[in-house]
User: What shape does this take?
Amino acid sequence: MPISAPLTNPFFMKMLYIPALAFLIFLVGCRQTNNVQKDNPPKIIFDSDFGPDYDDVGAIAFLHAMADSGKAEILATISCNKNQLVAPCLDILNTYFGRPHIPIGATKKEGVDLGSWQHWADTLVAKYPHKLVSTSQAKDALAVYREILSAQPDTSVTIVTVGFLTNIRDLLLSKPDSLSPLSGKDLVAKKVKQLVSMAGTFPEGREFNVFMDSTASKFAFENWPTPIIFTGFEIGSKIHTGLRLVQSNVQDNPVKDVFRLSIPMSAEDKNGRMSWDETAVLIGVYGTEGFFTKVYGKIVVNPNGGNAWVNDPNGRQAYVVQKMPVKAMGKFIEERMMHVPIKKK
Assistant: This one.
């Protein structure tokens, strides 16, 4: 029998592919773990709409897993969504993962107010402990940003946005105050290393986070003074997670509850939920090497809330293109979403 004959057999090919995929995940995981400085883990502010979709829940679970492993420090969790269940849900997740002290902020100006149509947010609020009763009880997002940033070393903070750019616009427009003698833009330039944003479709398109507050998006991206990395709609739409989590034996886990409730409600989630926001947290912690390649240039936000892209190899902005195989990345992300919190002594 010719040596090449078994390679035409689909079952044989699958048997070769599975261990190869597992080995690739192992190699990339080891490589990226080495790239994360445990003595100086990235300091992350997580800004989320936390409600219209539930990939935000997977993203914050990923982030807490990184904090438990010493690969990230969570400085604050902030809502760009005025819905009254957002801050309580952030409180629930922070408390579940043993960090009830993490500051929670929320936009206080006019903005988007959207809840979870799958009713996972009210389910969590009814089941799990939390101190904040409503989003209106949270501190002003702008005050949280200015207070946190002013206390951090220069060029040390990564801001990860997985929602509307409302808070980012307000931060850039802020004036000197008792928290910092710097304007918002100068404070960002001094303290922020990079912005990682799940926003846009590349090289062009119309994406939810950008167009829901397109005025804020346009101002934020045109005036941001440090590098920006975009992970676009086209990236997360191919990466599905959540089924392994739902099928796991873990009990009383708010992350599992959200995916367990929500996945059956939409036919498009039969293979797991699309994982947009998790990719932004991944980049915020691990960077892009081994996962993505980058296309440098500048985003252009159009009046209708759509976006285009202008290539520039010397640009300070970049969008990412998938490099790691999609299934391998899905497994990499979901393993971190399935993290069980470390019990504190």
Summary: Residues 1-26 have pLDDT under 50 and may be disordered. The CA atoms of residues 60 and 93 lie 8 Å apart. The radius of gyration is 20 Å. The chain has 14 helices and 13 strands.
